[in-house]
Amino acid sequence: MSRNVIVCAAITGAIHTPTMSPYLPITPEQIAGQAIDAARAGAAVVHIHARDPENGMPSPDLNLFREIIEKIHSEVDAVISITTGGGAGMTMDQRTAVVPEFTPELASFNMGSINFAIFPVIKKYTEWKFDWEKPFLEAGKAGIFQNTFADLEKICRIMRENGTKPELEIYDVGHLYNAKFLLSEGLLDPPLYLQFVMGILGGIQPTFYDLIHLKETADRLFGAESYQWSAFGAGQMEFPICTVAVLLGGNCRVGLEDSLYLSKGKLAKSNAELVKKMVRIIREFSLEPATPVKAREILGIKGKR
What we know:
38% of the residues lie in helices and 18% in strands. The chain is of the alpha/beta class and 305 residues long.
């Protein structure tokens, strides 16, 4: 086997809260620092959310994003993938403002509405570091992560106008059909880049059977040679799903957004630790992690400058 595998590091996300791990990066300095270390460990792509530096709550503040992005660009050549998923309670305008503001090479783009539920983790904790954490997690029980077709069309236009390649977040099989529809309407440009998001309650779960089903469905809809793809499993299935995805010809994503643990019962102290483990696994199969230059070539994206 001889192939370059794109490793993405999802640095902080908007799911885990400060109570859950002392290693979760919160401030712009911490988020950028961990992204830089992850890139040096072998991640070609770093996926960025911002948080309020005072309490760790997910934030749409463009000044926070600017500080993170400028610091990363000053140190490494990694591809920066900015979120348009944001965090619970953010409006669509807040979520998408990062694209025209920063014209990133890559940005996440959620392919449909789901019951995005993270409330089951509440029972693991009896005390919280900040008052916002428990209500934030509870909100998923009665809320919907909204991405209507009107929203999808709007984001397609924003991405295209700013030369940003969409990383299509596929939380369930129906999202592949949504992507097919947008492609047929001329709102998405081929080749697509799909990210299989597995393990969120309300979406598809992180089993090997479901991963293969997603891949086979994508092959039928788009043609096996006509798209690029990546996958990850939230929680304990992070490395198993990533490994199988790589062996099936895909790419992978690890990071503290997706799992706080390096192995059973052992908290990861950084995103770089998670990247190093995934890089070691990739090399065990005589594959190599893609450089940022190679990742840009594979994905057909514009380059940071």
